[in-house]
Amino acid sequence: MLNSCIITQLPKFTDRRGDLTFIQNGPQLPFKIERIYYLYDVPAAAERGGHAHRNLHQLIIALSGSFEVRLYDGNQSRTYTLNKPYEALYVCPMIWRELYNFSSGSVTLVLASSLYDETDYIRNIDEYNLIAGQIRK
Ligand code: TYD
Predict the structure, then answer these.
(1) Which CATH architecture has domain 2-15+34-136?
(2) Contacts of 31 (CB under 8 A, 6+ apart)
(3) Pocket around ligand 1: residues whose beta carbon is below 6 Å from it?
């Protein structure tokens, strides 16, 4: 599962007026965008995430500043530093994620494949490890 979670480069148009990056639905995206949310004014010591989603696909982008994302599939973990507004980290369903080490003024953009649904969350790591272990069998 962790191998599906990759950083993709988004289109970037640069000219003397600055840079422009866009994201739109289409074959280049691994899911159709249904929801957008963003994190801002995050204290440096704060940790976000700390959960997995049963069915949700997401793209995570550092629109401004930087932070780290630790992904865990119940077996292995990988850590990414996101700090470029033209890079998106794809997170597939059933991956535990933790976001931390937010720089001052950072803005995290998240594009999601469905509307907010608390029943899609797994917020307990023991429950997550159990389900992830069953999927691996
Ligand atoms: P939470 O999932 O804890 O945020 P994070 O994953 O960044 O740590 O969400 C914080 C609160 O916001 C929680 O009460 C649920 C609510 N929320 C929504 O109502 N809609 C949403 O789209 C999201 C992502 C969260």
Answers:
(1) Sandwich (2.60)
(2) 57, 113
(3) 35, 37, 39, 48-49, 116
Strands 96-100 and 87-91: unpaired
Q: Which two tokens stand for residue 57?
A: 């696909």
Q: Which of 79, 59, 65 is nearest to 107 (CA)?
A: 65
Q: How far is it, in rounded angstroms, from Cα 34 to Cα 134?
A: 29
- Condensed to tens digits (0 to 9), the pLDDT of residues 26-84 reads 999 999 999 999 999 999 999 999 999 999 999 999 999 999 999 999 999 999 999 99
Q: Where are the domains of the chain?
A: 2-15+34-136
Ligand 1 atom nearest the C-alpha of 116 is: 22
